[in-house]
Amino acid sequence: MTEVLRYAAFTDDPAGGNPAGVVLDASELDETAMQAIAAEVGYSETAFLTAGADRALIVRYFSPETEVPFCGHATIAAAVAYAERYGTADLHLETASGRVDVYVVDSGAGPIATLTSVEPHIEEVLADDVGEALAALRWDATELDVALPARVAYAGARHLLLGAATRGRLAALDYDFARLRRLMEARDWVTVALVFRCDATTFDARNPFPTGGVVEDPATGAAAAALGAYLRALGLIAPPVRLTVHQGEDIGRPSLLLVDVPAGAHTGIRVSGRAVPIG
């Protein structure tokens, strides 16, 4: 029988953060079985690990409805679960997006995992696509932060990134699920990353995830990495720098993501956080 572990990532409280399923030995599972398990678990993602070559681990990520190329919070959860059982602090993960290295340290108050993303990049986004996204979100263009121009940001998965001009606009999230999903599927966006800049290095974030059958992701490591890459590419931060991203507070699952952005346009972004078992 397949053992499915349940962890909350980017928190030290099982009632906070983003829940993830973790299967540490998926060697006997095919794609259909993985999708069925992810649907039964019901979390935004479940990570499935199998042994690969040269001591690497092959990881696949499934939402309740589809496979995604990379998931940050499930990576953090899987790394902590693996290290707790096998004592391995450094993991080399082969994902659909490429190699992701993760290390786990004992902070004295519980394990902290840090992932390094694949090489990120930023893309322009069509004005019509921004307009359709805003219509689905029920936002007006005047509610955008002009200092954070719309872009598609990638650090393992593609996210439309939009900046909210006020914290109140970010808090009042009520969108057209089906309409936003159609646009995201057509454009291959995994989530829409909505952010409010609190200060130079602190952000509040929300991530609608209708393509995975989930209204909102409480903590999105892949989007946090993409945010770091976006800010670096547009010259909106001075790397090396650490960013603090708060997510999930608006839906009662507060999460903390630490994002280290190194200098160098092609270097991966590091995302760190805690993870704890649920139940």
Q: Can you describe this structure?
A:
It is a single chain. The protein is built from six helices and 17 strands. The protein is α+β, with helices and mostly antiparallel strands and 279 residues long. The chain has two domains: 112 residues, Diaminopimelate Epimerase, Chain A, domain 1 (Roll), CATH 3.10.310; 152 residues, Roll (Diaminopimelate Epimerase, Chain A, domain 1). Strands 1-2-3-4-6-7-8-17 form an eight-stranded mixed beta barrel. α3 packs antiparallel against α5. The mean pLDDT is 97.
The CATH topology of the largest domain corresponds to: Diaminopimelate Epimerase, Chain A, domain 1
Work out the radius of gyration: 17 Å
Fraction of residues in helices?
Answer: 10-25%
Separate helix tally = 6
SS content category: alpha+beta
The ordered string of helix (H) and strand (E) elements is: EEHEEEHEEEEHEEHHEEEHEEE
Q: Please count the beta strands (DSSP E, at least 2 residues each).
A: 17
**How many structural domains can be distinguished in the coordinates?**
2
At the first level of CATH, the class of the largest domain is Alpha Beta
> What separation lies between the terminal Cα atoms?
19 Å
Chain-averaged pLDDT? 97
- Largest sheet features: 8 strands, mixed, barrel
What would a concise description of this structure say?
The chain is α+β, with helices and mostly antiparallel strands and 279 residues long. It is 24% helix and 37% strand.
Brief descriptors of the model:
279 residues, 17 strands, 37% strand, Diaminopimelate Epimerase, Chain A, domain 1
